[in-house]
Design brief:
This protein has two domains: 16-29 and 48-199, Glycosyltransferase (Alpha/alpha barrel), CATH 1.50.10; 240-336, no CATH class. Helix content is 47%, strand content 10%. It is built from twelve helices and twelve strands. The chain has helices at 23-30, 42-66, 89-100, 104-117, 128-147, 161-173, 204-208, 211-221, 225-238, 270-283, 286-303, 331-335, and strands at 72-74, 79-81, 125-127, 187-189, 201-203, 250-252, 258-260, 262-263, 304-305, 308-309, 311-313, 319-321. It has a three-stranded antiparallel beta sheet. It has a three-stranded antiparallel beta sheet with strand order 8-11-12, with no helix packed on it. Strands 1-2 form a two-stranded antiparallel sheet. Helix 5 packs across helix 8 (211-221), helix 6 packs across helix 8 and helix 8 (211-221) runs antiparallel to helix 9 (225-238). The longest helix has 25 residues, at 42-66. It binds 2-acetamido-2-deoxy-beta-D-glucopyranose (2 copies). One 2-acetamido-2-deoxy-beta-D-glucopyranose binds at residues 221-222. Belongs to the glycosyl hydrolase 47 family.
């Protein structure tokens, strides 16, 4: 669940995104004197902490040296590539981790660079899911951290540039939500809206992984539209759950028909569960708690085969895929 370990993903809905706000959990683990889990001594905890830091800087420094300002680093060839939107994605995605690690200098330099150089009025068709969790989430968390004296990472000269960028970006994502179900298209062009040939099929994670960022943006701007579209999308998915209270993997955003009916906690669905719980924790909205409780109960009943989780047909509950997949690994973090 932690930022430095965030998995790279290739398609929307393939991994469990971690909103920067959850970084607080990692902060607790990294701070001296914080509670230590049973079975880990304080010195072991320090070693683990340092290992996490080393891993992060290995990746971050490699990116800055070889790939920046392109989106991502190809780790074997040490080439950069613009794999998503062409807006220094890895840097934006890493800002909150830099702050979390106490790296005020690189955090401030990163925020300043992004504020001056990143633009979204570009002819690029981007994944709504990826752009939300990485870019919008990265900008909003960095904005909150840089604006708040209490974080110890406040940037004196910071003038809200990242919030302005967030609003601009989110407005460019909004055309994707113009569907009969309220569940967004998987991709949208930042300049021209949804492409004519855009697929009407999206993943459950694609429609269920927007509430935190869009909700925070609404709270920061007093513009309720972002929070509303994200909630409508969750409702659109949940209203189409099966009688077993399971959701499938892929859905048609026009007809609301499930085109892939395998229910599971991993690939294509994962962060649907994560975000309904976190949306309740962050905003106190009990509708999300209710959805989470029903969805979680069904997952534990039909998907949990101790010690694994399997995939079953959302309607019949029959096993379709009895294998563990790596994207399920976030689940224990959700259960804490
Ligand atoms: C936008 O980008 C697409 C894909 O690269 C290209 O085919 C199209 O001509 C561009 N449109 C404009 C108006 O530049
Ligand atoms: C949002 O509304 C609150 C309460 O009315 C106000 O204090 C705040 O300044 C407003 N924020 C923005 C960005 O307009």
């Amino acid at each position: 669940m932690m930022q430095p370990m965030r998995l790279r993903l290739r398609r929307q809905g393939r991994a469990s995104p971690l909103l920067c706000l959850s970084a607080a959990i990692l902060a607790a683990a990294l701070l001296p004197g914080a509670a230590v889990a049973d079975g880990v001594t304080p010195s072991e905890a320090r070693l683990l902490r340092d290992e996490v830091k080393d891993m992060f800087y290995h990746a971050f420094d490699g990116y800055m040296q070889h790939a920046f300002p392109l989106d991502e680093l190809r780790p074997l060839s040490c080439q950069g590539e613009d794999s998503l939107g062409g807006y220094a994605l890895t840097l934006i995605d890493s800002l909150d981790t830099l702050a979390l690690l106490g790296d005020k200098e690189r955090f401030a330099a990163g925020v300043e660079w992004v504020g001056k150089n990143v633009r979204f009025d570009i002819n690029k068709t981007v994944s709504v899911f990826e752009t939300n969790i990485r870019i919008l989430g990265g900008l909003l968390s960095a904005h909150l951290i840089a604006s708040d004296y209490a974080t110890g990472m406040e940037i004196e000269s910071y003038d809200g540039q990242l919030l302005h960028l967030s609003v601009d970006l989110a407005q460019r994502l909004l055309p994707a939500f113009d569907t009969p179900t309220g569940i967004p298209f998987g991709s949208v062009n930042l300049l021209y809206g949804v492409d004519d040939d855009e697929s009407k099929i999206t993943s459950t994670a694609g429609g269920g992984t927007l509430t935190l960022e869009f909700g925070v943006l609404s709270r920061l701007t007093n513009n309720t539209v972002f929070e509303q579209v994200a909630k409508k999308s969750v409702r659109g998915i949940w209203a189409r759950r099966s009688k077993l209270n399971l959701v499938g993997a892929h859905i048609n955003v026009f007809t609301g028909e499930w085109t892939q009916k395998d229910a599971g906690i991993g690939t294509s669905i994962d962060s649907f569960y994560e975000y309904v719980l976190k949306a309740y924790l962050l905003f106190g909205d009990e509708e999300y708690l209710y959805v989470f409780q029903e969805a979680y109960k069904a997952a534990m009943h039909y998907l949990h085969h101790d010690p694994w989780y399997i995939e079953v047909n959302m309607n019949s509950g029959a096993t379709v895929w009895p294998l563990f997949n790596s994207l399920q690994a976030f689940w224990p973090g959700l259960q804490i």
